[in-house]
Amino acid sequence: MPTAFPSQSLKPWRRAVLKVGSSLLTGEDRRLSDRFARGLAAFVAASRAQGREVVIVSSGAVAAGRGLLTAEGQGLTQRQALAALGQAPMIALWQGLIPQPVAQVLLSHDDLKNRRRYLNARATLRELLRLGAVPVINENDTVAVDELKLGDNDNLAAVVAALVDAEVLLIATDIAGLYTGNPARDASAVPVPQIDSITPAVLAMAGEPGALGTGGMRTKLEAAAKAAAAGIGTALFCGRDAECVEALARDELKGTWIAPHGDRLLARKLWLRHAPASGGVLRIDAGAVAALGRRGASLLPGGVAAVEGRFGRGDLVEVVSSEDGSTVARGLVAYNSDDLARIRGRRSTEIEGILGYRYGESVIHRDDLVLLATA
User: Which of 245, 279, 287, 370 could form a disulfide with 272 if both were Cys (CB 3.0 to 4.6 A apart)?
Assistant: First the structure.
């Protein structure tokens, strides 16, 4: 028996991303099973009862589709077809276990590389969380080409954690955490409870990919490194261990903790402060300057006095005081320059009536804005 992991406390968190792999959603017959998903769903429900939010990144669609057929083969086209077949039962499994409404969200890496699609995805996920739903995210395997590769959903989970401003990434595995070697083959292997940084030596401890899913411990460490760079810590734990999952709801981890590098929000604010702007400028009135500086509010259309330059949705613009011309802030706009010219000075409730659609009530959400001067 491998040495057990000691219990360690997790810092309180408000929002988490939970990654669940295929091996936790299928039985010995390779068909979809709720055996281990029940405990993970109970953790999600317990977290919601505590006023916390959980976004699930779930593998299992390809495995679920394979369980419906007798066809063999591992070709890309077949895997895409199996993913299409398996999406519905995989989502149905989660909805049957979670008391809150479950929302399916299919993403690809292209969605997250394109700034406008990135903002659309984030706005949708924020609204789902606001409505009390539990988003269940999977890669859009049915149309993906390059994305169906080793460890994709592990890395997708790290990107989603940054996308939704999560404080922690929780990766449920079929083993207890990272060991110094493969405990099934190396009797001297011991648990690694904490990792300060992902080094080549740490990666060398990881084993080979599993047979059912597309990822292994190495890809989980690579995902944790991406999350750490975004200021998000990662917990690796055994999703098959009911006691371990129950302890997680009490902020007790029996697994491996990979520490974040620096402050999560600070890293984003530094990027907003120093990234090249689009050349667009929003001139705002004194009331908006005060709201941004004193209350940490989002910028609403009513405070925009003038729009200068041409820019698209999701571009970085300068926010300038219309009174003295000082640069107050920088941020990512939720509307393009043409739309903003039409809704400036108007109430947020009027946006849809004027444009015929809305991307939210804010011109720049406070999470996408950094102050350069305070009123």
Answer: 370
